[in-house]
């Protein structure tokens, strides 16, 4: 990020001065009038505005809270540690974090050189960006649909590791600059820039992490159902195409959510099916090997022995 912006964002705010002077905790009235800590967009956005940026408040732990708007956090320098719906997320320079309206967030104290920018965004700001994204379904579009419709059960946050992607860094910096310095035509500029940012992020879905138990369950269920039905001739690339996900991103997410690679899950299913046929049919071993999707007999024998400690013939005889 341009050093002029870093200097501006590093200036100690009045809120931070109060904390450094000994105030314990945040001043909740700056964020909401309610007893429950739900940060209110009306406290942070001027009337009629759809988006604003503000430096992340340092030197204090921000207790568990929610927002009634969409928050996007960009890490300029240093790090910040967040707990979102129980998941630890550590933002590093260049990272982007999208939070929907109902995600629960807690933030550990940041130091003086830990500089982050918070975008406060009303859902309708994304209308133009959403229209630019086409018809293909993906996790990013699902997130936007949830924010626009007020249905946020699926994905509570999206976390992008994109420090090395120059177009994304430039687009974010352009938005910060335009809003921070009050440039002309900034609403149209920023809505178009947000659309371009989301289109760029679609090219880097392999650098994205999501946070949602329901999303995890649905993704894992879809993968396992596909393997159940297509264990003989299915492929990860076909599955990714069917689900409208980047193949590398899907491969990583399968490993993260199941502890196994797609290949390991597929092989486990094929072996289980081979055992079923060995025990419940009179098919020859050669026919069984072909029926479960293997065309390399020696490979099948080796993997079967690794898994069960005996050959297929010995397994059948031992029944």
From TrEMBL:
Domain HTH araC/xylS-type: 221-318
Nuclease recorded as keyword: no
Gene Ontology molecular function, alphabetical: DNA-binding transcription factor activity; sequence-specific DNA binding
A family per Pfam: HTH_18
SUPFAM superfamilies: Homeodomain-like, RmlC-like cupins
Keywords, sorted A to Z: DNA-binding, Transcription, Transcription regulation
Protein name from the UniProt record: AraC family transcriptional regulator
């Amino acid at each position: 990020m341009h050093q002029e912006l870093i200097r501006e964002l590093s200036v100690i705010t009045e809120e931070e001065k109060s904390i450094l002077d000994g105030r314990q905790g945040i001043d909740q009235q700056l964020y909401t009038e309610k007893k429950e800590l739900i940060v209110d967009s009306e406290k942070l956005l001027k009337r009629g505005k759809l988006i604003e940026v503000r430096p992340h408040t340092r030197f204090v732990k921000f207790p568990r809270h929610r927002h009634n708007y969409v928050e996007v956090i960009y890490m300029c320098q240093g790090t910040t540690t967040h707990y979102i719906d129980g998941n630890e997320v550590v933002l590093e320079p260049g990272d982007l974090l999208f939070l929907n309206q109902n995600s629960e967030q807690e933030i550990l104290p940041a130091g003086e050189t830990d500089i982050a920018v918070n975008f406060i965004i009303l859902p309708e700001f994304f209308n133009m960006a959403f229209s630019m994204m086409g018809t293909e379904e993906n996790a990013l579009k699902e997130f936007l649909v949830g924010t626009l419709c007020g249905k946020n059960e699926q994905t509570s946050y999206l976390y992008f590791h994109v420090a090395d992607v120059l177009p994304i860094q430039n687009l974010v910096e352009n938005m910060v600059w335009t809003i921070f310095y009050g440039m002309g035509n900034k609403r149209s500029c920023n809505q178009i820039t947000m659309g371009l940012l989301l289109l760029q992020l679609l090219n880097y879905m392999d650098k994205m992490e999501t946070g949602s138990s329901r999303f995890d369950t649905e993704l894992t269920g879809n993968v396992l159902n596909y393997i159940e039905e297509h264990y003989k001739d299915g492929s990860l690339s076909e599955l990714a195409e069917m689900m409208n996900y980047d193949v590398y991103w899907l491969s990583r997410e399968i490993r993260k959510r199941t502890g196994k690679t797609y290949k390991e899950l597929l092989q486990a299913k094929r072996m289980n099916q081979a055992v079923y046929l060995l025990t419940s049919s009179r098919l020859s071993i050669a026919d069984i090997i072909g029926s479960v999707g293997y065309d390399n007999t020696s490979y099948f024998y080796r993997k079967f022995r690794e898994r069960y400690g005996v050959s297929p013939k010995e397994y059948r005889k031992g029944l």
